Amino acid sequence: MAITTLEGKRFAQMVLQGAAHLANNAKTVDALNVFPVPDGDTGTNMNLSMTSGAKEVKNHVSDHIGKVASSLAKGLLMGARGNSGVILSQLFRGFAKAIEQKSEVNSKEFAAALEAGVQTAYKAVMKPVEGTILTVAKDAAKRAVAVAKKETNIVVVMEETLKEAKASLKRTPDLLPV
User: Which of 83, 86, 104, 142 could form a disulfide with 7 if both were Cys (CB 3.0 to 4.6 A apart)?
Assistant: First the structure.
C-alpha cells in the first residue's frame, strides 16, 4: 500500500524507532568518527542528543506533523551534545521550520523539509567540511528531492533517501584527507 502523506503520529513513531536504532548502534557511529578529531564520541553525542529529542516527541505526540517536528527540534537543541549533536539539532530545526504549519506532508514537502534542514545545518557550522555528516545529509536530501518529483509514495522516497545516505557515507573517506 502506498503511503502518500505523513502525519504526526507516524512521524513520532519513526523518530522513536530511529532513536532506538541509533542507541543500539552508537558504538558503531563512534568508530566512524575521525573529524575534526578522532575522539570516538560522535555516536555517543548523537545518541544523547537524539534521546533528548525523542523524549520531547514522546511527551508531545500529535496528529500534526509540524508540532511533532517542532517538539523534536526543541528536544534536540536542549539536549545537543558535541558538534554532531548540534549539527543533528540544526538538521531537524530546519526540517521542523519548513513544516511547522502543516498537519501532514506529502513526498515533495517531506523532501523539501529535508533540504531545508541541510541548509540550516550548513549555515550553523562556521566552516563546513565535506566528508562529514553534512555531506551525507546534503546528498540524501538531494536524492529525496529528485525522487519526490516523480514519486508520491513517501516510503519509496525514504528508501531511496536512505540508499543515497549509505552511498554518501561510503564516499566520505575520499573527501576527507584524515
Answer: 104
What angle (nearest 5°) sits at the alpha carbon of residue 109, between those of residues 68 and 67?
Answer: 15
Supply the pLDDT for residue 131: 82
Model pTM score:
0.93
Low-confidence residues of the chain: pLDDT under 70: 33-38, 178
- End-to-end Cα, the chain, rounded Å: 45
Q: How many CA atoms lie within 13 A of 6 on its CB side?
A: 27
The helix or strand, by DSSP H or E, that contains position 105, with its residue range, turns out to be strand 104-105
How is the chain split into domains, by residue range?
A: 6-175
Question: Which of 74, 43, 77 is closest to 59 using CA atoms?
Answer: 74
